[in-house]
Structure formats: C-alpha cells, structure tokens
Known about the structure:
The protein has 416 residues and is an alpha+beta fold. It is built from 13 helices and ten strands. It folds into two domains: 109 residues, no CATH class; 276 residues, no CATH class. Helix 6 packs antiparallel against helix 7, helix 10 runs antiparallel to helix 11 and helix 10 packs antiparallel against helix 13.
Amino acid sequence: MNGQPTEPSFEPMSRLEIVGQLRARLVDVLPDAETLWSTQKVERHGTDRPGAKGIFRPRTRSNPFGARGRRSNENPVMFRGHLAMDATQAYALLRERFATLGYTPLLRHQKGYDVVIALPYVFKSQSTPNTDPRQWVPNLILLLITIMTTTLMGAIMEQSELIAENLLIFFQRPRLILTGVPASLTILSILGVHELGHYFVARKHGLETTLPYFIPVPFGFGTFGAIIRIRTPWENRKALFDVGLAGPLAGLLVAFPLFFVGLLLSPHQRPMPAGMPLGSPILLQWMEKLVYLIRGIPKDHEIYVDAMTFAAWFGLVVTGFNLLPVGQLDGGHVAYAVLGRWAKVLGIVVLLALVLLALFRIWDGWYVWAAFIFISGWQHPAPLNALAPLGTKRFLLGVLVSILMVLLFTPAPFPM
C-alpha cells in the first residue's frame, strides 16, 4: 500500500452493451435520445477541442488533463435529442452516471438538437490541495532561482549609472545587489498573486491544478512570468470565466497600490535626454496626473521611477496584454465564456491588429506576442458542458473587463 489513489477498473463490454448502458442513464435527461454511430477514433490521451464537425479532436501526445481511460483507441458514443431539464442539472446527473461506466459526458448543440457525447475517459477532479511535500520541490526550486535572477536584474536597473562607469561594481560592492530586492519582491508578488488567484478559483471549481511554476531568466526583469498547470478540462463557461478572470484581478490588487506608492515616492525633474519614456495606458496616465496634482509637480517636470515602480508599471502593462480577448490568454478565456464560438472571430481581429501594430513599427514586441498567441493556440477549446449559460452577472462583469482591458492597453509601451 503506498497511499496513492488507484484508477477504477471496468468490466469489458461490447459496443452494443455500452450504448445500451449509456442510453439507460439518459432516460430522464434526454428522453428522445437517438444514437449517432460515430466512426471517429479517439485516442486515450485526448481533450475536447474544436475539430471534425465541431465536436471532438484528439490530442496525439501527452494528456494535460489527467484523464483516466476506460479503453484506448475507442470511439465516443453520441446521442442527440432534447434535454428535459436545465443543462447544468443534466450535466451533473450524467457526469455521475457515466463515471460508473468509465465515461465523461460532453454537452453540445448542433442543428437544432442537444447532443450528448460520451467520452471513454474519467477526468480527475481535485478540490483539496495535494499535501505531499515532494510535489512542491520543483516549484520551490524555481521560485528560489527566480528570486535570485529578479533581485540581480533589479539591482542592475537600480545601479545602471554605476555599472556604466564600472562593470565590476557588484564584485567590489556585493551589497549593492540588495538594492534589487524591492523590484524583485514587486514583480514576484504581482506574478505570484496572479497565479494563486487562478489556483484557488480552479480548486473551488474542482479542477486538478498545480502550484505556480516561476520561470527564471538572466535578463529583462529576471523572469518570464509564472504558470500553473490545470490538468482537468473546464466543466462549463462559468468555471472558464471565473478561473480566467481571477488571476488578472488578483494581480491588479497588488500592482495598482505598488505603482501608485512608487509614483508618490519617485523623484521628479526636468526631462533628461538620456531618459527612457514609457508608453503608459490610459488608466496609468490618469494615476500619474493624480500624483502630479497631489505632489504639486510642475508641468515641465517628469517623474523618474525607480526599479520597484518600473516593475509595478510593467506588471500592469502585461496584465493589460494578458486581458486581450484571444486564444489562451486570460482575456481569451473570458471572451470565450462570454461570446462562445463568436470569440473566434474576435480573436482573429485581435491577432491581425497586433501584426499590423508591428508592421507599422508601433512596437516590434507585437511580433513576439502574436507568435506566442498563435503557437499556444489562438482558438479556444469548448468546455465539457457547452450548453450551460454563463449568467447575467458574469456577462455584465465580462463587459466591464473589456473596458478595463482598453484602459490598461497601450500599443507602444516602449515608444520607438
């Protein structure tokens, strides 16, 4: 006995027996169910993505959602009809009933019918954290390395003038490295709270997810950000909306106060030729004007921010980028939850707009963002239950999020 959960075992059944067992579990949910005999093969390691006929496309390599399969290389079983109850209630019943046979239901709408697709997988659900300390070791190691890289890069930003005069300044005066601590704590707190926002809301929805993995790099701000891995697919649009939005909102609760305090404490003087202008979004420009008013800064002076304030500014700008309604960005999750398949059209428009911004030399960095969005997947997969409504409150909140994205977006963060 090793204390680890074991995968369920299922008695072998013929195709007709499986269909009969599944139909019996549909009797009060889809009373007029018709069986659709699918010939599409589904590999054991798969997840729901838009594919042939808009229903299912298998992955061909590793399964990021941790599905426990009943059989490998087995067809899904599909039924069509009309639901006799609310889609949320129907899905809850079918998920429990199908699991005893080793299947997971998908709900779709197609050509005037409600379609129930039985996938030969049982997806893991994990509402309680994994308490095995060994699972945290990679996360902790990456966090410690990222603390070192962000502290070093923060110190380089803070001591840029001394470094220009003496490249060996940190070897001669190693304590100067500690001047990068405020910038390091700023960027790590924004990233960490952002990912923990995703983490806790994903747990709330019963999704199996990891703790954040920080990505250290020896340049820029010392990190490429942080990620969590969600190993189970979204059950419905509400879960997709909540998890996608939780991260940016949590990160903003940290970034806004740090940026505002940084502006209050940063020095101001007349413009210097060597200064690097920042293309702040509309919302940050309003904050800067408020600080000018509070501090009584002359109009012909500019605020010169330190590394900590610069890190907070960067965190806010990147959050604005992450709210773009396309692909696998957090804004893409929210857009799909609100718009459904229409989010694909909006995503194409956004992706083309980013490419045009790069082509017209507004900011070359849009090439990188466009490539990242395209490679990571510019089309968003549907949740398991695509029929459950989002709800009015979340729809209105999604509208407010789109306004927030516009206020936090800047086409040229570093004017050329």
